[in-house]
Write a structure and sequence with these properties.
It contains 2 helices and no strands. It is an all-alpha fold. It has a domain of 30 residues.
Length: 74
Amino acid sequence: MSTPALGERVPDWALGSLLLAGTISIAGITDYFLTRAGYEMVGTVIWTLAYGAAFAVVWFVWLRHIDLTGPESG
């Protein structure tokens, strides 16, 4: 991924770290506040959707292009 302002490529580990930190922050904080407000089920749904979305991003950005088949001959 390139940043338009800098014109340089952002390393994949930095994007992964940002995704991880954002997922934990958004899912955890939202779940905490909704649970404290009495909306336990909504908090759980938000937490599940946030982690599911992060998994989908990891799949489409980094894992989708990997060939997971074994060798043709055994």
